[in-house]
User: What shape does this take?
Amino acid sequence: MATPKDPVPYSPDVEEIQPDERETAEKIAEQMVYIVDRTHEVDGHAVRSVHAKSHAILKGTLTVHDGLPAELAQGIFAAPRSYDVLLRISTIPGDVLRDSVSVPRGLAIKVFDVPGERLPGTEGENTQDFLMAGGPVFSAPDAWNFLSNLKLLALTTERAEGAKAALSAVLRPVERAIEALGLKSPTLSTFGGYLPTNPLGEDFFSQVPLRYGDYIAKFNVTPESDSFKALKGKEVKLDDPNVLREAVIDELARHGGAWTLKVQLCRDLKKMPIEDASVEWSEKLSPYQPVATISVPAQEAWSADRAAKVDERIAFRPWHGVEAHRPLGNIMRARRHVYPIAAGHRSKLTGCPLHEPSTLPDL
Assistant: This one.
């Protein structure tokens, strides 16, 4: 077996900033604001422009593993310790769809009491956010291409949900056939072909890179406990508008579970690019390696009260964090501009100010 290359050291010049990035980000923000306005117009209530529907809002603990080698003992994972975490499992669209429309899921993680130099704009905070989604790659290589996809999604927001459900039923068998060949289609998944499995058994990925202390990495969350492993790939019947939420509620009412948090270090900038979010980093070049465990006790996984406290009042953003985990690449730089605009507009419409908590909220 070939000896893996040393991880690529982080330096600011690993990023290649393009001259039109600000203009593209502003156009994305316009589309996000349109989605918020559209849901507010139709439903009388503004929700997130992406990841509008929550399926679980959980409290848990992130425990950094002891004895990590030096290349993995970086950033907030530099020493063994435990952190309180807030987790939100969601689906990606900016409208609250019934679950018969099978679309990709997201996992947002907010870590509390995090030490270290803060990213610009987060001075005085003590949290670190990690945003994850189903599938190892982003749906577009960069922000400009994402804008084209977003325009189409924006035009379908809060329209013809029945047609979306019918399209989803057609696309799911196609996605199953593709996956049987060992492949996945981000496009099919985005437009309703995502397989309807229990979110607790799913793998989640950062899809785009972050600084990892002295190095660069992508992140992965995968089931660790037997309870969550048993749900991996297990499909649920889409016979209820909130069947995914109910499946999670039922599972966590009985017992808790755990995920493993892993990182994939960048070892070759050409084969593992920073700026193209559509390229999957080869695990042959650099496998995902475990650095921490995220455990959640048995609990009420979702309630209207939890949603009011978290969905309405708390934001998850990749730029909430420490310099040691600075978001990298074109997509992440666009998010830095877009997320505050979309969240601020939603907050203005709901009349509910957003705040960044310093401790785990009382759920």
